Task: inverse folding
């Protein structure tokens, strides 16, 4: 396989991952696999390099969702701070500790997430509950832990985010996806600086992957912002992502 063909596969895979990340999550399972298995990066460098495409994709989707009235930062700002702080703590740990051991239990977490998504599906198709006020002593530690996970290993972060925001904070799934992109993009920008400082980013390969991820995220966000059935589509994409991820994790 030529270098051009390798990069072509990487961009196409990243484009698909960008679309999956925008509507559901776990697209990093694709990009991390490409970075390690096809492009040959060590796992810790792949973890850092992957953040470039995550940031550019999140920036593109946030702009589209904001432009189309799906991103409400003011109403959800109380959720952003604990996630951001947790992500920085997780990123600092990721710089010094390998996340390979964590992957041993990741597949069981994915099964739990699939069960949470399938139980009472109507909860995933409702509008944002504007009257709901979660207790601070519940959502602050919960979202800190969520951010910590995202900072430590990005893979699966989007799915966890949707479960907590839709089921726990009672946000609409599309609004949750819009907020997800903004928050992840926010802390990822800082994490890129941390990973770069430690020499754990390949900017050339990260830039190539970012082309696909950004395009995939942008196009999917436009679709999700304007399609009346976007809630249902996002829900079914989420189920599909989880099922395929579980099959892959248990069969390998």
Result:
């Amino acid at each position: 396989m030529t270098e051009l063909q390798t990069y072509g596969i990487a961009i196409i895979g990243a484009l698909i991952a960008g679309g999956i990340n925008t509507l559901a999550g776990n697209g990093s399972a694709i990009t991390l696999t490409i970075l390690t298995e096809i492009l040959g990066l060590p796992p810790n460098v792949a973890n850092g390099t992957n953040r470039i495409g995550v940031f550019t994709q999140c920036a593109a989707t946030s702009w589209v969702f904001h432009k189309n009235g799906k991103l409400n930062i003011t109403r959800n700002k109380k959720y952003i701070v604990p996630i951001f702080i947790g992500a920085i703590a997780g990123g600092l740990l990721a710089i010094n500790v390998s996340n390979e051991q964590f992957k041993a239990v990741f597949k069981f977490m994915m099964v739990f997430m699939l069960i949470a998504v399938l139980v009472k599906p109507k909860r995933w198709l409702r509008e944002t509950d504007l009257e709901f006020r979660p207790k601070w002593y519940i959502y602050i530690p919960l979202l800190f832990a969520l951010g910590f996970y995202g900072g430590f290993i990005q893979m699966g972060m989007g799915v966890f985010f949707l479960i907590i925001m839709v089921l726990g904070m009672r946000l609409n799934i599309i609004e949750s996806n819009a907020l997800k992109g903004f928050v992840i993009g926010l802390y990822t920008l800082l994490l890129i600086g941390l990973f770069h400082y430690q020499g754990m980013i390949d900017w050339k390969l990260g830039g190539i992957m970012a082309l696909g991820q950004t395009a995939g995220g942008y196009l999917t966000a436009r679709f999700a912002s304007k399609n009346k059935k976007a809630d249902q589509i996002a829900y079914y994409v989420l189920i599909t992502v989880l099922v395929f991820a579980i099959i892959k994790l248990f069969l390998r």
Summary: The chain has one domain: 3-251. The radius of gyration is 17 Å.
